[in-house]
Specification:
single chain; about 200 residues; alpha+beta; two-stranded antiparallel sheet; 7 helices; about 30% helix; about 10% strand; binds zinc ion
């Protein structure tokens, strides 16, 4: 069964390396694909958040202005998590929010096994009541829907507008052109993309 809140099995390596945009918003399309259309912190999906997503500067611009348009400093996250993170310096969620260090309990609570993951959960309030209840509700919905495969596909499918990264031309080039072959759009073209995730 596809689980709605599974962090990546192991810390992922970034697949994309666009360069040269002078406005960090221009990296958004790459970041959507990089982070699988989910919030890197709480795993909310684009399709569950009609208000849209933010781009978080992992190292805050106020402290590291030179990283304002550094792709590797940008994270894709929901507005709630971005507001909670603010200018804080926290451990890197890509490294510390994997299935090796965080699991989602059946009651919706995040259970962390490392100091870094616990710190991020605490600083962003990821276990506060409304988050916990939200996860609990979705876990229950997916459990109920497992006997209705078509409904599960509708609820846990990828967005319809998977971006075709091969059409983009970053001004400074692309450090990792091979990553485009691993993009969700390409995987769907090759028939490799599962119905749900
Ligand atoms: Zn979030």
């Amino acid at each position: 069964m596809t689980a709605p809140f599974d962090y990546p099995t192991a810390p992922p390596v970034r697949r994309h390396g666009p360069l040269g945009y002078t406005d960090y918003e221009s990296y958004r399309t790459w970041l959507r694909d990089e982070f699988a259309f989910r919030c890197v912190y709480c795993l909310l999906r684009e399709r569950w958040v009609p208000g849209g997503f933010d781009l978080d500067h992992f190292r805050p611009i106020a402290i590291h202005p030179e990283k304002a348009t550094d792709y590797d400093n940008l994270l894709y996250c929901c507005s709630t998590c971005n507001s909670a993170k603010r200018q804080q310096i926290i451990p890197d969620p890509i490294q510390h929010f994997s299935g090796e260090s965080v699991i989602v309990n059946g009651d919706g609570l995040l259970i962390a096994s490392t100091t870094e993951a616990k710190f991020i959960i605490e600083q962003l309030g990821l276990n506060r009541k409304r988050y916990q209840e939200f996860r609990q509700v979705w876990l229950k919905i997916v459990e109920i829907l497992t006997s209705h495969p078509t409904a599960v596909s509708e609820v846990l499918r990828y967005p319809s507008d998977l971006p075709d990264l091969s059409t983009l031309r970053p001004p400074g080039g692309n450090r990792k052109p091979e990553g485009i072959e691993q993009s969700f759009h390409r995987r769907r073209e090759r028939g490799e993309l599962p119905d749900t995730y």
